[in-house]
## 1
Amino acid sequence: MSAPSTLATIRTKVRRLTGRPSPQQITDAQIDDYVNTFYQYDFPEHLRVFSNNGTFEFMTIPNVDQYNMLSPTPATPSFNELIVDFDGAPSQAQDVYYNLQPPAYINGYQSFYCQSREQFFRTYPALGDIDTSLSGNGTPGPYAITLPNVPMLQNSVTVGTVDDTNSAIRVVDNPQTRSTGTWLISNSTTAPVGSIDYLSGAVSITFANNIPSGTEITFTFTPYQPNRPQAVLFYDNIITLRPVPDKVYPVKFNAFLTPAALLSSTQDPLIKQWWQYLAYGASKKIFEDSQDPEGIDQITRAFKEQENLVLHRHIVQQTNERTATIYTEMTDFPYGNFNNRF
């Protein structure tokens, strides 16, 4: 029978370390908050251990090139595999992962991954088209037009003109589904003033004021040719794919994931060995909040000892594999030229 390592055991250890045996001094709920704050926010930054490595996966949506990491719907079947749904209700997947890391695989193919907008858009430039065939007729609209060179990227369509008050008007698209969107006045909370179909190019727009007869109405947009994505840009918590996906494809990254919170008194940490480290980390936070430097000093040595024990497991795991180089696949058994003997 193994030694206990549950949240209840961690609570008991915290009470002993901090000298707070009574729930009147600190409640179990307060201890749980300290434990999970350390477990989910401090621990992953103190130690990037092997056990927190995992896989981040999502499915592409046809004709959608950008996926905001701050607003997908995560589902976590197991700690080490995070699958998110970008076509569902918003929620915070960023609370589950810490970092995305290459390599990136799209439908099983290793794909180009970068975090530089300059590098990415130098390879895959987002070149816009301009259409000025529509002019004002002295009314606010509606004005209807079918734009050429479709489909068009979402969040790339703008409309510019001047109304009868001599004010410059700039309208931007506001995607609603994978194929349709509405219009919004830029820098304003004005209600949508029309619709757009990104696949057919059909546009309808009504302005707040009259557009004088003959005044040019300028549409700018970025056309694309959908295909299987081969490159990934991760920037500003947004994943951008090129080419724009034409179908549903699985996209997978290596990821460093946040440990799941301990919510039940019978629940163990991901690795049972961590329970003492969590107890010392939570106790340190309690002493910090109570402005008790002597308490911090008393547990620091043991805290560092537990930290080294947690890190040691990671080090032992890493020693099984040498640092990868461009020649690794050529020499590691059973791959490479060592087996090709004549």
## 2
Amino acid sequence: MQTHRPTWCVTNLDKLTYSGNLHNLSGIDPSRYTFVKGDVCDGELVERILLEHEIDTIVHMAAESHVDRSLMDAKPFYQTNVIGTQTIVDALRRTQLHTGRNIRMVYVSTDEVYGSLTLNQPELKFIETMPLQPNSPYAASKTGGDLVVLAAQHTFNLDLLITRCSNNFGPYQHPEKLIPRFISNLMNGQPVPLYGDGLNVRDWLHVDDHVEAIIAVLEKGLAGQVYNIGGNNERTNLELTHTILNIMGLDSNMIRTVPDRLGHDRRYAIDATKISKELGWTPSRSTWPKALVETVHWYQTHKDWLEQI
């Protein structure tokens, strides 16, 4: 952003829960960046930020996002992902009515809202017009956020858009997620926990590709539209695990099979034809295994970052 969008100024609202980390902000130009600690469910705070900072664009990424945590306690997920989204939409609308200034918002959702695909139809992928069929509390909460945005856009003709992305990977990802957790375990001589038979399939998208896709939607997308964002990079969890082991010079003795996750979706696969044709975006950093090699190397050379977490 600092290099490619030199005129942009960013105000970042974050509650700094367990997964928030201010160390991730090192190197950002403070003259064009403002951090505000707070909750997206605090409507007065959100509206004050929109007014005081003259915000004209929102990228709404705030979410509880870990499936396993949602199985233990779903309430924070619905609070943040549904109520928080409604709070932002309400604050956006009030600000527009007060100032007359149009505010565009991109709501960052997930492929998990579509539910699960089967393994025996590899040609079938998620498209934007598919019905939403979430299977976990996390996915259901994100689906609720999607519906809040779609309803508000239709009812009030607001400048709202939705993106639905596949699994992200890359630097600075919290080690509760699969790839950094496996890397961290192996760096510490611990086995990696692999769910079930390991044949669940995910489409892996590098975080930098995801950011560029969001910017494309922000700058060129049409209000009321949904855009899928994928890496064209489907892998079984077992294949992913062996690739990480090979990169780190280890063998399958470091795999520990654990009971499968409750309601574990079998396959996710994104069809990103729409964003490619309409907005000209395609992934360029999700090349396999090169991008994974670089990711492993990043965590290996940032042990201090992992230790802080």
## 3
Amino acid sequence: MTFKKNVSGLKDHKLIKKKGVIVSPFNYMLSEKMQLNSWSIERMPEYLWLGLILMYYGRERGFEKAGNILFEISKKITSMQFPKLSMILSLPDNDQKNVYEIIINRINKIVLAPLTILYKNNSYPLFNQFFYDSQLTVEMRLDILSKAVKIYYQPQSNEATDLRFLALSLLLFSGKLIVPEKLSKTFEEYPYTNHKDEKMRQYRPTIRATEGSGFLIDDNVAFCKIFWRDIGMITSCNPIIFKFHKNKDKFVELINGSQKILEYVLFSNKEKSLSDDKFNVIIGSINYALKIFVEIVKNSLGDKILGRHGLRTIIEIYIILKYLLEKESEKPGIWEDYKIYGIGKYKLILLKAREANLDKSSHLIHPIIDALVNEIKWEEFTDVDLKYFDKQNIREKSIEVGEKELYDLYYDYDSNFSHGLWGAIRESTMLHCNKPTHMYHSIPDINLIQQLPDVKTDSSIIIKKLLLILKNNYEFPKSLLQQLDDET
């Protein structure tokens, strides 16, 4: 199920097991035949001069003036297929003059004057000869261009569709674009039909699909890159900071209650704490998860990147404990195996550390690692298992214990932050610039202003689940923790 229209659900995607890739329906159908192109980035800058006409005169008069201009150009400059500014600017001088005279006879030169801030006199003298207007200051020209870019940037907008219609006009006027009879009404009526008219719900997609057709696209990528570079360099960023509410539940009370429970269970099971591997693993793991939760709460890490690292670990501990409990009947020694597996990982680090030249201030303290590796048994009797514990990764374990949704929605999401993948970097560290002239790019949050949605509530839910595991294996009075609900 998807809550967004016009997008495919997970079940619609295709899993290519050999490649380890989940392929979208579009990519699966079209494969390598599909070439993506962007209206906003690769074509809109070319037609912005027509957009300025629509902007200045309004839709009805703008269409009339732009239509007449393009009709005349189609008759005089037959070599032009598209009304692209790069094509006009690269015409021989006589052809350029003809085009500019056609334009200037139909509109006030002030309409295209804002473009002279990008296409300056030293490089485009003819263009400036016709359209430079000293009445417009640099700020005024830049402001008009910025508004135009914002209006025509979104490819699905009504205004962008109007501009895309004009982009097809030269082909229509020259007869090089033959419209099927069933679509002829669309192209005939479009410029004279109000966007509120119900017919436009059919007309607009047809215009966009036609303009975006691969066989009609002849992009001058270099020209558009220069456009975005030049306009981007003379406009400032406008970063957006998202605000989120911090969770304010009674987390300290949960921590205090959890500590009392662990204390009660520890003293009630002192004999088990001496030699019982199961007891050691359960109470040690839950205490570790609780310690992470305490750090999240007391150090205000709930809306920070490290909060997500912590939640991911708490979830993994929960899934591992459920897995160990489920497997203990068929593998009685699984608790000891789990401890040895972890010590084996430490042993590998120890062996490498002995060969390394560690800095004295390193957080890896050689003697401590040595002591821990040899705590259960002499290291010479300990092997290093390079595979996943019990040969199943955490995803497979989550499925085995009925927690796949928890894995899919939270563990996998927070793993992006642990591994520093781009989605997590983009969400937490890169700010959205709300400037169309910057192509809505992202910029680094150098001042560390952006926070994230708080993980404390999600973390507390898993802590309660862990305490429920403890309660199901070692008794303690429920009064010690009122928040612990049997239905958690």
